[in-house]
Each structure stands twice: as structure tokens, then as C-alpha cells.
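Researcher: Sequence recovery benchmark, item below. Answer with residues only.
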């Protein structure tokens, strides 16, 4: 894959359609209902104006940051995404190798095609994303495995009491190859009894999950526990009260509740409610370096990127992901320079025109 061929992540997504089946592309690119929230994630970023300062010495920039006390070479993480084996044979390992090379963290999905124990062999800094199942013993077993394997944090996704109403997947179901397994749930998914993987997974989500349950997970592990899926400032406060070590502002890429707000629009009120007590991240619609600097100006420590990484993986495996991350790094570095900012750790709120 020629890393100079693509100049932005939209081009990567467009090219990925030639490498994926229509159903797999639809699964990765898809959204809930009318896709209102999915669309807002991008338009909201575009509607935010940057107010740069000039005559500042930007000859040297420091792109690095820390999230949960863990160093990252730039304020970008790879978001948890299910079944990366549908995109490329290298699957999650291809992403992890690219993350290790880029000096950033990868958050691994519960629904991965690579096992917890195998992914750590790659050498990347890893977090584990947990969907809480009705079988709480299974959920705790996954937490214990992640901690034993050397993962550095647990990310508990709370915005999926049930799967979103994803019409494109209903119209064009994803074909799961016979050889493909959910590596972390291989003992639990019986394909003969449950041939429809998505229906099976949806039946296992626990809609009874509460903050008391979240606190039990916090107390069950030595890992810091972040909560992913927060949009309301009161939920951010409750998360901290119940032991959250970090908050990820997310609307699940517009794949859950349609007409929920764009994450960048609610980020300022979340960071205000958190008031520096824990680290805050966000995902949803991040495609360019300018998006990263806007999120940092609103108080986030870093952003998560998902779909674009899946599409890059589809095109070139590890090399494709490396290309996508290089594009983001160059765009972000340029945005810093043109904004008169020299460090990821010191992006001022005044950079946003309000």
C-alpha cells in the first residue's frame, strides 16, 4: 500500500469499498435508523471554527500526551471495534502492530476475532472494552483474563442495553465465515444453536445494568475502569461517584440511539461537569487533525478513531492502518502549527470561536 496515495481518511473509506463485501462495508459504515446522529458527528466538527494565534514560535511541537497516566505519542487511540477479521486476515493484530509502531494505545473489543492472550504478544499498549453480558460470571472472567494478560485499563461500554436499530444490516446481513470465531467467547457461542451471530450477541447484552453494577466491576479489578458511552453531564458525575477512572464521551458512532447529539457538541458540558477529576476522551466523527485539536480545546485528553481504522485495515492490513495514523499525525501537527499551539498538553479553550 503506497502511503502517499491517500491524503485524507475519507479517501481511505472510499477505496475500502473495493476491498470489502457490500454487507461488510455496510456493517462497518452503518448507523442507526435515519443516520441523523451519524451525520451530526461530522457536521458538528465542521461547524466549529478555530481562532488561531500567530507570531508564535511553533518551530518545535510536542504531540505527545498522557491518558490515565499512560504515555501516547499523539492524542489518538484506536476505538474498540468488533470482528476486524472481516476486514483483513491480520485482524486485530494488524491494528495492534500499527499502534505499537505509532506509539499509541489500542482498545480491544470483547467481540474480537483475536484472543486477549494473543493480542498482547504484539507489544502494543492495550485496553480491554467490555460488554456486560447477562452471564456476569462470563463478564468477570473476561476482566480477569485481561488483567492477567497485562492490559492497562478496562473500558466498560454502557450505551448498549440492546443493539441499535440498524436497518442496513437488517437489509443486507453480514455473512460470517464458517472459520471465524469470537476468540474471547469461543466457549460460549454455539454456532449450531445460534446461527445468527448478531441476534445471539444482542440477546446477551444485559439491559438491567446500573451504576451499582458498574461499581462492582470497579471493585473486582486492579485495572482503572473507564466508562464509555456518556452523553449526559449527570451521568458523568455518577460515573465518578461510582469509581470511574476516566470517561469516554460517545454516541457509539451514531449506531445506537438516533438523534442523540454529536459527541463534540456535548463534550464541553461533560468536561465542565467532570472538572478535572478524571481524564476525558471522546469519539464520533473524528476524521482530521483539526478535529483532534478541537476536542482537546474542549477539554478532552485524547480522541478515539474507529471506522477509518477498519477501512484502512481492509486496504492494507497493518500497513494500511499505519498509513491512516500517519495521515492523522501529519494533519494534527499541521493544525497545531497553524493554530499557534506547540503542545498537545496545552491547547487553550480560546482556540474555539464562541
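Model:
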Amino acid at each position: 500500500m503506497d502511503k502517499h496515495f491517500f491524503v485524507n481518511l475519507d479517501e481511505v473509506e472510499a477505496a475500502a469499498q473495493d476491498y470489502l463485501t457490500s454487507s461488510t462495508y455496510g456493517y462497518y459504515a452503518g448507523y442507526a435508523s435515519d443516520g441523523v446522529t451519524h451525520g451530526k458527528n461530522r457536521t458538528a466538527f465542521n461547524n466549529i471554527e478555530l481562532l488561531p494565534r500567530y507570531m508564535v514560535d511553533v518551530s518545535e511541537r510536542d504531540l505527545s500526551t498522557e491518558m490515565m497516566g499512560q504515555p501516547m505519542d499523539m492524542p489518538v487511540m484506536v476505538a474498540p471495534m468488533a470482528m476486524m477479521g472481516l476486514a483483513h486476515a491480520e485482524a486485530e493484530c494488524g491494528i495492534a502492530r500499527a499502534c505499537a509502531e505509532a506509539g499509541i494505545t489500542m482498545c480491544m473489543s470483547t467481540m474480537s476475532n483475536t484472543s486477549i492472550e494473543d493480542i498482547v504478544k504484539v507489544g502494543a499498549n492495550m485496553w480491554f472494552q467490555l460488554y456486560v453480558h447477562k452471564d456476569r460470571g462470563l463478564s468477570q472472567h473476561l476482566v480477569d483474563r485481561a488483567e492477567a494478560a497485562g492490559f492497562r485499563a478496562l473500558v466498560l461500554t454502557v450505551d448498549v442495553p440492546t443493539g441499535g436499530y440498524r436497518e442496513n444490516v437488517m437489509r443486507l446481513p453480514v455473512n460470517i465465515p464458517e472459520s471465524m470465531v469470537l476468540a474471547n467467547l469461543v466457549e460460549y457461542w454455539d454456532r449450531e444453536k445460534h446461527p445468527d451471530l448478531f441476534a445471539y450477541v444482542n440477546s446477551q447484552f444485559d439491559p438491567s445494568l446500573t451504576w451499582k453494577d458498574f461499581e462492582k466491576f470497579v471493585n473486582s479489578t486492579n485495572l482503572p475502569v473507564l466508562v464509555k458511552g456518556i452523553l449526559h453531564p449527570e451521568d458523568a458525575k455518577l460515573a465518578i461517584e461510582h469509581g470511574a477512572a476516566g470517561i469516554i464521551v460517545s454516541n457509539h458512532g451514531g449506531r445506537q440511539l438516533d438523534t442523540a447529539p454529536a459527541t463534540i457538541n456535548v463534550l464541553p458540558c461533560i468536561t465542565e461537569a467532570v472538572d478535572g477529576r478524571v481524564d476525558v476522551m471522546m469519539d464520533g466523527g473524528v476524521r482530521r487533525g483539526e478535529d483532534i485539536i478541537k476536542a482537546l480545546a474542549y477539554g478532552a485528553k485524547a480522541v478515539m478513531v474507529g471506522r477509518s481504522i477498519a477501512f484502512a485495515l481492509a486496504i492494507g492490513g497493518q500497513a494500511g492502518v499505519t498509513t491512516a495514523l500517519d495521515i492523522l499525525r501529519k494533519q494534527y501537527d499541521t493544525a497545531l502549527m497553524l493554530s499557534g499551539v506547540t503542545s498537545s498538553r496545552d491547547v487553550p479553550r480560546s482556540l474555539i470561536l464562541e
